[in-house]
Amino acid sequence: MGGPPYDCLANPLGAVRLAFEKAIGSELETPSTHPSAFNGKDWGALELFRHFLFQESGLSQVPILNPKTLRWVQPNSLVRYRGMIQDMLGNEFYAGAYKDGNLWRTNKFMDVSQYPMGSSPDMCIWERRLLYCVPVPGQNSWTEPSSEMEPNWSSQTREKRRRMDDEDNDPMDLVPDDEIKSSPITKKMREDGLPSPSQSRDTKTTSSSSITSTFQSVDEDNLPCLVKIYDSPESELKLNDVFEFIGVLTFDSELAVEKDDNDELSNSFYDDALVHLPPNKVPRLHCLIHRKLAVQDFLPGSPIIEPKPHLVKETREALFRHLTAVLGNDEVAAHFVLLHLLSKVHARVDDVAVGKLSLNLTGLNKESVSVFGTRLSDTFKNLLPFTNCMPLTLEYLNIASLAPKKDYQANRLVPGVLQLPEGSHLMVDETRLESGSLNSTGIENTKLLKNLIEFQKVEYDFQYYKVEMATDVQLLIFSEGKSNIVPADVIVPFQPSCLESTEMPVAEALEAWRWYLATVRSLPHSIGSEIQKVVEDDLVAARQMDRSLGSRDFSRWLTMARLISSSFGETSLSKEHWEMAKEMERLRRERLK
Fold first, then answer.
1. Are 136 and 84 in contact (CB under 8 A)?
2. Helix (H) or strand (E) holding 12
3. Would 358 disulfide with which of 68, 283, 467, 475, CB 3.0-4.6 Å?
4. First vs last C-alpha separation in the chain
5. 402-425 pLDDT, tens per residue?
6. Cβ(254)–Cβ(279) below 8 Å
7. Residue 429 to residue 34: CA distance in whole angstroms
8. Where are the alpha helices (DSSP H) in 187-263?
9. Longest pairwise C-alpha distance within the chain
10. Tally of CB atoms within 10 A around 38
11. Which Pfam families does the UniProt record give (predicted)?
């Protein structure tokens, strides 16, 4: 038979074991390399998976784990999970390598040992990190993969395993994964009492068939995942980052029942943090490969296109016309909304988040926001990967949990509304805010919102102290007058001239606009020495004419000029676009009079 003696997709643990045996020379009575040398290191397994995923185009065959695919995906198979790191649960100890008679075996990328480990002094204790990940808050449906059909390998794999059972193969064969009984805890792994390999074979049919019932209580719209990380520097993975994790899915259908029958287990067998993450609700993924995702990674099927000037200008013009129609033919507001959508924090100087451009559209009330606010919300959901809305009422401010808080009893970070990943958009509707008194929660929430919009930072409450976390969230505020609770960088009085509804753009247009926004936002930008002198002279002249202008105004002008240049696909500021920024500012200020 040709081909490799393992299946990276259906039997990833077989590939891991094969690489382990090859690396240490396990067929020898004295291993050529002691397993302890691989503490915190790869022994060649990851290269097998990188070759399969990226050189053999295997990535597209790996199912993305979500509530729908969870109905048919096989345990101990290779899966992908896309999500935000919502909490970091610390490190977990496990028996990474141990002796089974004269043979060295490994538990890496597993929850529980396949064979009894005994109490061998040769056992190698290693560490892995635990990350609690959730679907990205506000992730829109167009970013999800279009196909969720069960891949062909599933039926083939089941047939192959049936043949192996009929032949009564040795348990050391390379496709015994259904024999591995998984568990969510390895920090206190059992050293005896484990079922023998033959007993494990008797239970594998139950294990495979119970995958659907195991996760029957999973939220249809929200599937968290406990990701176990190996051999990666801590600096590579940060709170609120969005990642794609590729690894081995494990579960235990019996563990939740055991816990219900004997509460004492929660104080002995289970790790404190994992007690609150039952495996029938939170699947486990042992990560082999991970990669941080950018907005471009959520554009379905979009080829990499060079942002040539003529293509960018055409796409910009079409998007601007659409925004103008959505906003009732208010071209000034449409110009500012476009710049707002392109804004991002590209640098931090002391406490200044350079590049942000929050926008406050004023002149809106409950009735008009139900029309134009809804239109903009629907438009943004079709254009941006992550969008969120906040109804800013007095009651909401007084009861909402905006900041994440540490629960030391559960050893968990309780999420807050403002725990959002980089690149998120937040729409705040202030039109329903009425006069009244704020309680202590409301006062704290008001401070959090002001801190977010001014400094792009959110304070996380760790009970005994607070930690400021940098973020990058676009904020758009609807209000009747200038918002005092969420003071934006730019205030634009909204002046629509018609109420006609707009047609839904065709799919090709939406794909082009998504590509445009993601690509243009990522372009570098600079200001040449010649244009810099022009800008400085104009700012001095403006200050002489209006003494009320300050550094915040000038910073806003420069941000607008940079965004205008970027919107045309240019990476350096030109005099033409500097003049456009000045004209937009003049039109805006006229409306404020």
1. yes
2. helix 12-24
3. 475
4. 82
5. 999 999 888 889 999 999 999 999
6. no
7. 62
8. 197-209, 211-214, 255-261
9. 91
10. 22
11. MCM_bind
